[in-house]
Each structure stands twice: as structure tokens, then as C-alpha cells.
Design a protein that fits this description.
CATH topology: TIM Barrel
Shape: globular
CATH superfamily: FMN-linked oxidoreductases
Number of domains: 1
CATH class: Alpha Beta
CATH architecture: Alpha-Beta Barrel
Number of strands: 8
Helix content: 40-55%
Distance between the termini: 34 Å
Radius of gyration: 16 Å
Structural class: alpha/beta
Low-confidence stretches: none
Largest sheet: 8 strands, parallel, barrel
Number of helices: 10
Order of helices and strands: HEHEHEEHEHHEHEHEHH
Mean pLDDT: 94
Bound molecules: SN-glycerol-1-phosphate
Length: 251
């Protein structure tokens, strides 16, 4: 059965209306069950828009369990955000089919995609091709090490713009600017503004976002979806204030 959630077309329509979205990232490796339950409850209560599920490794075989638990609790769309081609599950609603366009590792530009394409073709998952851009966040993050790529320097807005433009011209459907999970410095607003001004695709921003103020600043700079992982993992209560920032910008 094909997925009927139409996640991408709904996001495009929301972008046209000027609405913003909040995604909470659950990394199945890092989850503590009690905190996840608390985060789930708050997410439902505050109208979180998406769950992104994934991490750089996923070593503990919890992916299906996490997806099942979320679905028991709510119908918030669950979008796979896979670190590699093993992190796939039919239980999710959609997958960010990531091409790491900031890097020059052919495996992450096309190689893993070839391997996972037959599985995905058969799956009910909505496939959303996404230009994934790793931006220097001031520390070496797992994704930088695992992907064996250099991030785009934090101040090189021009490189980010050209990379995003190329991604759009190649037909990718979204751009994801990521400073990496646990980044010391989140993506700077000047880069978000430059990229969102250059491409018309939905723009996802994440990595190292810890406060509702930062969420607000990212949205005002042009992010359409803000992703928060670590911070709400530590303090699920942040979801409420962050969601308020996001939804106060909805018309
Ligand atoms: C990482 O953008 C996500 O890919 C979230 O990062 O865990 O630092 O919020 P944090």
C-alpha cells in the first residue's frame, strides 16, 4: 500500500503559506526510554510536525521498536534520516533520500542510493530526495567522521549557496543544512538567509540548536523546518517553547 500522508506536497503547500515546521530528531542509539516517553507526550501536546529518526550508526537494533512506539502514541509523520543504507524500515512514513552534496564521497553521493533503491522501490515509504549539506559546527561531529567528508566552512556562505543551487538544478527536492548532531556552533543565520534566498526548495536546518531563541532566529532567517535532537533529548520540556516559536509564525 502506498503511503497516503503526502508529506512533501503538504510541506510545499505550507511553505507557500509561510508556515514553519518543527522536527524532533530521535537517534535510536541515544534514546533513554523515559525521556522519549516524555518527549512523545509533549510532541503530541504541542503539535510537533515531524519526527526524524536516525543517527550516524544505529548500533542497538532499536529502530523498529522506536517507530512502533511512536505510532502507538500518535500519527505525527515519522521520517527516516538514515546514516547509511542499513537504517531502513517499512514502519516509517517517509525517508530523506540524502545525497551528501557538500562532500566528495561517491558512496554518499550515489553509491548507497544504488544499493537501497530496489528496497525503497518496493517499500511504502514516501521518498524525498534531499541535498544534505554538512556545515562546520566547530567540533568534529560523528557525521563528519563517518562520512569521510569535509564540511563547508561556517563562514563560506557563497560555497553553501552554489552547492544548494547545484542540488536544486539536479532535481533534489529539499536542502538540509546540518552543523551535525551536537555541533558547538549551529549554522549561522547569514548562511541560512543566503541559501534560502537562492533556492526555492524547502530548507531544513539543524545541528546544535539548543534554545527557542535560536529556533526563532533560524526561522526568521529563512529555515522552513528546524530540527532539534540533543537538546530535547536532555530536556524534553524545551519542546513546548520551541513549538511555540514555530507555530507563532504560522498564518
Ligand atoms: C543532526 O540536525 C540534527 O543531524 C540535530 O542535531 O542533535 O545537535 O540537535 P542536534
Amino acid at each position: 500500500m502506498l503511503n497516503d500522508k503526502h508529506i512533501y506536497s503538504n510541506l510545499l503547500a505550507a511553505k507557500q503559506r509561510g508556515e514553519k515546521k518543527l522536527a524532533i530528531l530521535f537517534d535510536p542509539d541515544k534514546l533513554r526510554l523515559q525521556k522519549m516517553e516524555q518527549a512523545l507526550e509533549l510532541a503530541v501536546d504541542c503539535g510537533v510536525d515531524y519526527f526524524f529518526i536516525g543517527g550516524s550508526l544505529v548500533v542497538n537494533n532499536m529502530l523498529d521498536a522506536v517507530l512502533t512506539r511512536i505510532r502507538e502514541q500518535c500519527s505525527i509523520p515519522m521520517i527516516l534520516f538514515p546514516g547509511n543504507s542499513f537504517q531502513l524500515s517499512y514502519r516509517a512514513d517517509a525517508i530523506l533520500f540524502l545525497s551528501l552534496i557538500s562532500g566528495r564521497n561517491p558512496e554518499l553521493l550515489i553509491g548507497q542510493h544504488v544499493i537501497s533503491a530496489p528496497f525503497l522501490k518496493m517499500s511504502p515509504l514516501e521518498i524525498i530526495s534531499t541535498g544534505y549539506m554538512l556545515i562546520d559546527g566547530g567540533v568534529q561531529t560523528s557525521v563528519q567522521y563517518m562520512s569521510n567528508t569535509y564540511p563547508i566552512p561556517a563562514h563560506k556562505d557563497d560555497i553553501a549557496v552554489c552547492t544548494a543551487l547545484a542540488g536544486e538544478m539536479l532535481g533534489l527536492k529539499m536542502i538540509y543544512l546540518d552543523a551535525g548532531s551536537g555541533a558547538k556552533n549551529p549554522v549561522q543565520e547569514s548562511m541560512i538567509e543566503a541559501v534560502s534566498g537562492a533556492v526555492s526548495l524547502p530548507l531544513i536546518v539543524g545541528g546544535g540548536i539548543r534554545t527557542p531563541e535560536k529556533v526563532a532566529a533560524n526561522l526568521d532567517a529563512g529555515a522552513d523546518v528546524v530540527v532539534v535532537g540533543n537538546a530535547v533529548e536532555k530536556d524534553p520540556g524545551l519542546i513546548r517553547e520551541m513549538a511555540k516559536e514555530v507555530h507563532s509564525r504560522q498564518s
